[in-house]
Every structure is written in structure tokens, then in C-alpha cells.
Amino acid sequence: MNYIDSSLKVVGTRPIRPDGVDKVTGRAVFAADTRASGMLWGKILRSPHAHARIVSIDTAKAEALKGVFAVVTAADFPDIPSEEAFVGEGPVNFRDLALNCMARGKVLYEGHALAAVAASTQAIADAALALIDVKYEVLPHVIDVEAAMAPGAPVLHDDMFTSGVNPKPTKASNIAKVVTFKKGDADAGFKDADVIVEGVYTTQPVHQAYIEPHACMATYAPDGQVQLHSSSQGHFMVRAYTAKLLDMNMSNIRVNPAEIGGGFGGKTLVYLEPVAVMLSKKSGRTVKMQMTREDVFRASGPTSGAWMEVKIGAKKDGTIVAAKQVLKYQAGAFAGSPIGPGCMCGFAMYDLPNVDVVGYDVVSNRPKVAAYRAPGAPITSFAVESLMDELALKLGIDALTLRQKNAATNGTKTHYGPTHVNIGFTAVLDAVKAHPHWKAPLKEGHGRGLATGFWFNIGGESTAQVHVNEDGSVTAATGSPDIGGSRASIGMMVAEVLGVPATAVRTIVADTASIGFTHVTGGSRVTFATGMAATQAAEKVVDDLKKRAALTWDIPVEAVEWKDGKAYPAGSNAGAFEPLDLATLALKAARTGGPLIAEVSVNAQGAGAGFGAHIADVSVDKETGHVKIERYTAIQDVGKAIHPSYVEGQIQGGAAQGIGWALNEEYIYNAKGLMENAGFLDYRVPVASDVPMIEAVLVEVPNPRHPFGARGVGEVPIVPPMAAIANAIRSATGLRMADLPMSPPKVRAAFDAAG
Amino acid sequence: MPTVVLSSGSAGQQFTAGQTEFEVEATNFRRLVLELERRFPGLGRQVEDCMAIAIDGEIFQDAYAAELKPGSEIVLIPKIGGG
Asked: Model's pTM, two decimal places?
């Protein structure tokens, strides 16, 4: 059933968030809060080198230390063959995943795990790690993407031959893959251009910077049954990856989803869980592991840094006739940067006749990258949207007008193939034009920047159950960890269908043994896909409730209607009966057929793409190079906002992370390839004083493929900020900042260079 | 008979000797995969494991039953994830 044109009583309102009390009072149980009787502490020995051959590992002294119950190295794990699968948030090679959890033969980055211990206390575990004797043959390393692509660069994998080129190379290199997207004839298009702009841009790897470090607790029972408590974006993902890496049956692993303290894509992989299970198996005790913040920075994925070259050609009236882009994305130590979406997203906002994009996926001696909100899109958009600003300047056209002139609409054929349908980009641009921020005069010394962004959004597999409890209250259970308010949005959709208040529905996240498979919480898919499953499950319950009422009244089910949480006779011909509410029907459930419950699993399709536009006002201190965000407005097509406060929160959070990406965040490596700022004191995420109130403006163009019109909202808001701020800096100072982060030293240096 | 376009960035062209457009007699995604595998050995598996299908602009992933209508725009693109 579709409710898009219905009068809604719950969806679109702002009930109090169901997870709020537990979180603000400290009662929420995160993975690091878990404890068990007789529990051991697991710790990991990490590589001190950026690139080295492991000559030998001697664990004898560590094993002999009193209080140590187990020591593991790669020799304790199955030697997983290379096998590609698209699971989790992208293509995964299970051999790479296994090697990332425990190095075998070589360490490929500082922080790479190569042994682990389980001991009765953390201090003993630390002492045991110090007793493990590792002999390394240190190898030349390479950190930066262009250096990794250069002839003669140290090669990380001697079996990596660039795919996507013809003929296939016979010499190993650090270039894992080349991807190309072409539409029309870009070279011919540039010949028709009146104006051509070009630029080279770089971005640095930035971490997802979730406040909660990775943590888990594993118990391997003597009968081979495993219990895992883990903080992740997908406990089914944890089960699948752990089973694969340990060669176990999934049915022998039960993963309990802990509350999650942020993920943003970075918790769509396993790092600790297979190690904890192996330590538990070897020790016969429950093992708990948690990363330190340094571990998080050194050993879990940031997103890619990149080198990018962009060229755009346009007619005098602003019509873009050709565009080209070369993207080189860092993948970290194993192949798999988000180069594909990077190539697809940069120009996706525009209706362009001729486009040529080439992308490179490049490994280097850094932690393997992981997904981060709209993986790949913010990077490419920083380049494209910065150059769009240059084009507007050169043409003498307003930045918004240029975008409106070239905006993608329904029917626009993208450069990566599909035709846009049901999109709201022009509505977003109209909202920019109408917004007081866009019209407000600039204050003295301030600059204003505009940038736009795109993300596909996805659907996928989800399961939801709706239970009507014996007293008529309702429990909704899903397999989706709640990282962005999905317990609220799912409960509200169920409540809307059942015709009860939002507070009547309690939504829980069920473990892997208690509900059907559900894909990870990522790609902004949960409110769309799991919401679809929950809506359908609630509809099944309503159908059942009508049957129970019909049985009670002894009338045909067609003569029963359900509204406002009650069964009514459908008209006078159906008979005169008092309405039956949920509580009454639930009380008599045994007599009418047993428990009231429905479960629905879906593979949701048609997620509906999202578009956003951000306006940033900045001031720049010429003495220090400090950039202050003076005003920030983020406008986005969100489909139907199920719980507008959460949607606004997603937009504000994405923008805040983008502000950090723009102004401060970067990995700093020394000459030995070692990270020098692995902590929040030196890796500077935005703090409250860096971020103004971000005004989130919701444009609601319903997605017809969702029962309430929802589309994903969590990815798009991190796409525009970097270019919006760079464009604002240019507006304030005349300086084009093409290299992220636009930190005070770089801005100061740009002033110096400009004289 | 639907015309299928193989997106240039999809890595599928290694199986088609560079051919990017072909007509395929298939009424759903599964039949398309089987037909592509028959005509271009390896491509069907590539499509099934690593690619999504855009039917008239709507992206479908892992959806055997997705219907292909005559005259529809069918584009094979890399699968999409997220963060």
C-alpha cells in the first residue's frame, strides 16, 4: 500500500527519540560495556613498520607468562584463498580481509595486526605483547598515491596486476584497477566550448572518527557454538565475515548487536571479531577486545585521499558542453577504494552531453580504507564543485544560475549510463534561490560559497517483525543496527499503519538468531528498505486483526475496516458493533487464532537518488589563516521525512563532518611511513566552537517506490561541504584552495604565495 | 527485445571484446544474466556478482525477478554500496 498522498498522523511528526534516555543517562550498553564471568582481555600486537617482511614470530615467552591463556598468529587461522564477493558495503576480497585482520608473511602498514594474546588482565596482556619476538626485514614503503603509481615504486603485492586495461599487464604494480566512464565525445565537445577551466585538486584520507572505538566480546563454547557481542553497522555482516575467516558455519555463530557509538561506514568490516573468537577457542574462556583510539587511527579504515584533475568546457551562456576528470584514489594496503562511485558521482548533478572520466584504485602502505558516508562522492565533488565555481567566475554567471542551467532533471541521461528518474535536484536549487541565506547581503570580509552533491542511495535485504503484545502494545523488531534514528522511524511507520501513537510501538534490534537476514546499516538504506519491510509487516498484522474482528463479529472480513487503531464494521450493512481496539483483540488472540505477529523480508529496490546543496559563509583571518564558518545552510531532497528531527540531525552531522574534512582533518606521516597524529588532540575533528548552527532545510520530493515516499538522507550531506567552504574562501579572499585540508598553515601559505 | 547497455566503467567489457550495446531476448534480470553468460562467457557471472541493473533509471541490485520490458532502457553498472 502507498501512503504518500494519505493524511498522516504519525509519520512526519517529531516524537521524543526512543534511544535518548538510555544514551544521555549512560545506561545504553555499548560493546565496550559488556562483561562476562572469567573474561579475558585480548590485545593485538601491531606492526611498528610501514612495510616489512615477517621473518619470524616467536611467542614462547609470551605464552609462558603467568596469566596468559592464549596467543595467536596467522598460523592459527585458515589461509583464506582469494575470493571476491559483493557483501557488506562493497566488494570484499576475503583473503584481503583475513590478511587485514592478521598479517601473514608481510606487514603492509604501521598498525597492521600480526599477533594477539588473551590474558587475565589488560596489564598482563600488554606485558605478553612485549614478549613476542618478531624479526622483520624492513622494506621500502610508499604512502602517497602518485608516488605509489610511479615507476619503480615499492610494490605491495606481487600478484596485483592492474585490471580494467587491455592488454592485461604482466608486471605487478600498485594500481589495482582502472575504471572509465564515457558519454558522447568529450574531445569534440571541448572544441565547441567558448570557455574552458581546468584544475588539479587533492584530498587527504580522513577517518570516520566515530566516538566509540571498535569493541567485541566472544565466547567459543566447547560444542563449537560462538556468542559474539559486537558494535557494528551489521551483525549479520559480522557473523558472515567471522564465519568465512574462521571456516565456520554461520549457524554456529550468534551475534548480539550492541548499541553503536557511531559508524559512518567505518563499522561495515571486521577487525577484532575473528581474532577474539580464535583467542576464545584457544583459551576456553570468554575474550573481550577493544581498540584504543590510536588503534582506531592506525588500523581501521579512513576513507581515501586522492589526486584529481578536472576540466570543464562551456558556451558563453553557461551551457556545459564537455567535462573530463582523472581520479586517483588511495585504497590503503589492499585494493578497494571507492573509485567506482567517485567516477560516477562527480558529474551526476548535471546534464552533460560529453563526459570522460578515468579512475585509478591504488594501494599504498596505509590502513585499508573503509566506507565513509557516500563513499567516494565527497572527494570527486570537491574537485568538480570547486571548478564549477571557477567556471561561474570566468563566465561572469552567478554560481546558482550556472548550476540551474546545467542541472540534472528527470530524464537526464547520466554519464555512467542510467537516466535519472524521480529526482528533486531542481527543487533543491529552487530552495537555495528562495532561502534567506542565499539572498542575504554578505557582511564585510565574509565570503559565500555554494556547492551541490549527489548520492545514489540503496535498498537491499531487510527483515522486520511486528508483534502485538498481550496488552495491545506493539514491538517492532528489525535486523538493522540503529546508527541514525531507525528505531524511531521504523516504529513510526508501524504506528502509522496500525493507527496507534508512536509511543505505542517499541522498536528493537534483534540478534542474528532471532530475525531474518538483514543487510548492513549503510548506504542510507534502513528507513527505506527496513522501513518497507516493517510497513508490510504492519499491514499483515492489520489484515490479521481484521480477520480476528470478523471472526468475533461473525461477519465477512470484507465488512471490516481498520482505522485509528480499531476495527469497525464497514458501513451499516455490516452490522452494529462496538469497535474492537488492539488491546481487546490482543486479549482474545488465543481464541481467534493465536499470537498476533507478522514477519516480512524484502529485497528493496528503487531507493531513489538524493541531491543536496550547501551554502557556506566564512571569514578568513589573514594573520593566522584560520577559517571561521559564519553561517551554514544545508538544503536536501529527503523524500518524505519520517521523523524530521532525525533527518535534520543526519544533515547537520554530515555537514559537520564535512567541515572537519574541509578545514582540519588529515593523516600526517613521517619519513618512515608512520602516522604522527593518531589521536584526537593531533587529528583535529571539529569541536562545538568550530561549527555554527547548521540550518537544515528539508525539500520533500516523495520517492514513489517507498510506501511513505522516503529516500536515504545520511550520505548526501557530507558531499558538498568541502567545495562549499573552498568556494566561500575564494569569495572572501580570492584564493583558490585546491588541497585539503584548508588548515591555517595552508591558508596562510596561500596568502604568502599570492603576495 | 530490450537493448542492454554495458556501462563503460563496469569492467564487463573485457568479456564482450569492447561491445557496449546489444539486444538481448530476456524478460527479467535472471534470464538476462543467463543469456549474457551464454553469449559472452564470464559476463553473466560478472553481472550477477558485481553489477547492478538500471531499468529506466531505477537501480536494481540482486533482483532476479526485476522485469525487463521491450523498449526499456537497461544499463549494467557497478554495484552501489554506501557508508
From this structure: 0.96
